[in-house]
Structures are given as structure tokens and as C-alpha cells.
Amino acid sequence: MKSETEVLKTDVLIIGGGGAGCRAAIAAAEKKVDVLVISKNPIARGGITPVGFTGLSANIGQEPGDSSDIHIRDTVKAGRYLCDQNLVEALVRDESQAVHDVVRYGVKLEKEKGKFVQRLTPGQSYPRMLNVIGGGHGLVSGLKKEVERHHNIKIMEDMIITKLMVSKNGISGAASLDLKRGNLFIIQAKSIVLATGGAGQLWRHTDCPPESTGDGYALAYRAGAELVDMEQQLFYPTVAVFPETIVGLEISYEWCLHSKFGGWLLNNKGQRFFPPEVLPTRDVSARKIFEEIYSGGGTENSGVYLDITKCDESRKEALFVAGMQHCDKRLRELGIDLRRQVIEVAPGAHTTLGGIKINERGETSIRGLFAAGEVSGNVHGANRIAGHAYLEILVFGSIAGSGAADFAKKSNGNSIDMAEVRTEYARVYGFLSEKKDAIRTNEVKEKLKRTITQYIGPKRSRNSLETAIGEILRLKAEELSRLQVIDIKEYNNDWIEGIELSNMMDVAEVAANSALLRKESRGTHFREDFPHLDNKNWLKHTLVKLENGKLISRAEPIIMSKIKETEE
Amino acid sequence: MGEKVITARVFRFNPQKEKNPNYEVYKIQTDKHISVLNLIAYIHQNIDRTLAYRNYICNVGVCLSCLLQIDGKNARACTKTVNPGDTITIEPPKGFQVIRDLVVDFRAKKKA
Q: Is A244–B34 a contact, with Cβ atoms under 8 angstroms apart?
């Protein structure tokens, strides 16, 4: 441990090097402030943005008849009316600009006869899906190039933020662990943008990369910020479970099962059970597939069969040209040809819809702390339309980055509480110290993931949630302090996992309490004991925060600034 | 995992502490056809918690986070697969400074 604490100063600190973080950094840098980007992995070799195959959905004024009002209505309806509509209005207001900006940075979108190609996906009234060349990786690579053009942006990779520092006047900075050397240092920042993505790794089956452990939710929660609708976890309907080499791969049901192409899902008796005539949105599709698996129709790998082998050849080829090129290329690299081979799929944890509560300026409930992208909540509500994740990271990344820069310009910065720093040093280095009754990180992680998957899965009840909370609190009280991490300072995966695991425990506790509070079923949240939508009592957010060391939950009406009536 | 064995010869080096790298041999019982990245994750998960590697996968095969030398050639560990009975050598990718074991600094090119 160091006797003198290293302190780095910046105007704006961006936590996260994915799409939202990069877009926020660009927006802040354009306002001529000093920007520091901290990323757990190297940019474009980390984050969740690279995982997507295509998909940036926006109304860019190309489609006759489409309008902002219709796009807002589609989004709110697909979100099961749980979106804060002021955020949806911001999302749609800036959508065209967001697309033009990334094109200006060098991101390539599929074009035909001088026009951007746009396709129709479930939940959208007009074709809005733009095909990003190179998928999410193409998008974040373009953003990275633009980030590197700004000399006032400093990038530090292979770093994990372990704590947000808050003074009575608001945010003051953060503690950062340099994974290359193992030294913890302090960053003093006038404002901070959290852009750390979601928590897909809490569940056993997911298409999210290993680093999606919900760090940002835990950081914000421990700092006292309010989290919203954390019970809303979207499961992508069709994520590969077999063969072994493709486990975790998102197989686009929006394309494969589209009536135009004609793919099917089959149960273990070979019966076609999905899709119905009109392909449903993701929340409904995932529930239907889960039900089939739960009721005994699943394979030995707990999946169902995805079959497009019987579609006629011309439709197959149209499918692989339309939206499946990247996925097809990837599958074929791994020796799988969907034209001739049936694979097994199951719903997998995809987008964490809930998150840190923000307003239309990207501000959280802590002064000087902003959030953008998947880490924030209340944008998509209880279900997300395909392509809206990339739209969100671009629009809200820009809003939050720009807001954080304005905030920094007016602020002198807050002082760092050195007592808090010492406590954090003790916590972070404490993972490495020798313990009596030591337990291995991966053992505890396995227990936590099992609990989350079983009791906070797509189907919950008061019983299952109370069981989950009991077990999570037990793990926090009895096992977290006994975690024995290998004592190596230089790039230690075990240490990273230990820190992530402590985050996952807090996120799971928040998610379970939010789910317990919402006594209805809406979107991705299904309560066996309250199986129906309840618009009379539950056009409300669930809110969770930490107050004097205690988890407090409450409900609050959603913002319905645009559409006052629900259709259901 | 099974009856047959995959033998992995893995590069180990901590430049902060050691003068020279060495190789550690892991024998993994399995009957599965798996990616090299999953093999490394399996070793870290079940055999040796001290092994350092970049635990990231973009699932699309494009990010090059898992770029490693596999049997002497730079390749993507997420795409290169091994079969039960195989023996492979896994080293950090050519041309970059080693942070530890299989983890390199992609921003620090090594002089040839």
C-alpha cells in the first residue's frame, strides 16, 4: 500500500469506453474541457457495444409518412408505457443528428441508390433499422477514431473504477485501480459520466461479454444515487446454447423467424411452436420460449431448436443478405451453417433496461454525476425495440457528455475525503490479504449466479424474490469478506473478478428488491403471483437507493408528458 | 469434462518480477470441441487462478481482444478451436509488450 496517494485531476471523467462513453467524451471535448476516459478493457476490445451485429434504429426523414410523434408512440408502446416520456422525446428529437454525427466520424451505413437502407423490425411502424457496416464493432471503432482526434481527451485503459467519491456538494471524484500494475489512485473530477453498460453477466445464460457485471449500478448505488426499474431485465429470445462453440451468440430472431424468410422454433417433440403469424417483440417472444422450456418442451441443453433448413433456397439467400451477414460469417467461421444445420437456442440476458435514474439532461440524483447508455434506466421502459440501444448510447452519450462539460466549467471541484480514500484502499487491497476460512472467488460467483438465475429469472414471485434476497444478504455478510484472491498485483483476473463480484451482489440485491416491489407483470418482468398488467396502480417506477447504509425502495409515477392514455 | 485430454503449453511471464518467461503445461480432460479462448477460461476457472488473460469476447469475431499466438501464429482464440487429443502452444500475440502471461498492451508495440 502506498503512503502517499496519487491524485490525478480532470474536468470531466468518463467511466466506460464503449459507445456511450466514447460519444460522451467527444461531446465533452467539443466544449474545450479536459476529458479523461477510463475503460476496464481497451476501447473497441471491450464494452458491450461491439457485441451487437447490426442495428441502429432511427427516423432520419427518409421514410414518407414517418414522424417523431409516431416514433415516440412506438417506443412508449413497446416499452409497455414504463418509459419516462421526456426521455423518449429527447431520444427521438436528436435521432437524426445522432446518425449524421456518426457518419461524419466515419461510421459506414449500408446504402442503396444513394439512400440509407432501412428495414422494418418488430414494434416499429416504419422501417427505421439502419445496417451499420461492421456491426457494433464498426460503430465503436468509428467513435474511437473521433475520440483520438481530440487532443483534450486522455484515455486510460485496463483500469477499473472501484468507488465514486461524493462530498456534501456533489461528486468529487473516483478511485481507480490500474490493472496493469495493481496500484489504486484517485481521480479528482468536476463532473463524471457513468457509461459502464449493463449487468447481463448476473444470469447464467447471456449474450453479454464477461465484463458486463453491472459495475456502474453498484458504484452509483453505493454513492447514494437513485436506481429505477431494476426489475426490468430484457432476455434476448434466441441466444445459442448448442453447439458448444457458439454458446452465447445472439442469433437474430428478428431476421431468422421473420415471416418473409420463414424460420421456426421447434420443441423437443419436433413441433413448431413459434413464431405466431406476426413476430412479437422481444419481451413476449422470450416469455413464450421460456414457457415452452419450463413446461417440458426443452432440449437436454435447456434450449429449443432453431430451424431454417426447410425454408426455400431463395428466401434463405435473401435472409443472409438482409440482416444476417455478420452472424452468418461468424457461425461459418465456427463451422456452423444455418442453411443446413439446426441449432439450439434459449432466451439469454441481453439488456438491463432499468438503471440509474436520469432526467432529459442525463443528470442523476447526485450533483455532477451523469449517466448514459445501458447503465441509465427509464428510457426504454419495460421492453426495448431492436436498434434502440445504439440510438440511446449516441443520443444520451452526447447529452450527458455535453452536460458534464457545462457543469465542469461552472464548478471549482469538490474536495476528496481522505478518510474515504483510506477505507477504499483497505477494501480493494483487502481482497489480496490472507484469510481464515478462505473461499475462492469463482465458487462464490457461481453461488450468486445460480441464485440470480433461479430466483430472479424471467419468472418471479414473492417467494422466489425473498429467497434470493436472503441468499444475497448471506453471501454479502458471510462470504464476501472471506474471498481469497490470488496475491498478484500485475493484471490479476482473480482480483478483477473479486471486485466485480462485490458489484454483482449489490446489483442483484437492488434488482430483487425492485422486483419485489412491483406487484404486477409488465414487459420483461413477470410475477407468477401478480400475472397481469395493472395500469391502475402501476404506471409507476420502482426506485431504490441506499440511505444511511440501508436499502430503501419506493414507487413514483412515470412521466407521461406526451401520451397520457395507455392502449391496454 | 471427459475421457480424452487436451494438452496446452502456456506462456507464463511477469516482467515486473521475472527475468525470463517459462511455459506451463496443463492437461484438460475433455471430450468437447471448444475454442482456445474457452479452453483458457476453463484453465483459469478450474486449474490455475494465477493465469492472466484477457477475458473478453465480442461474440462477433472482430474485436481482436483475444489475439494470441497459437502454435506460433497470431490468431483469434475465440475462433481457433481444439479437439480432444490435441496439443497446442499458447503465447501472447507477436509484436506487443507483455503485461503478464497472455495479456499484452495493445498500445505498446514492441520493436522487432
A: yes
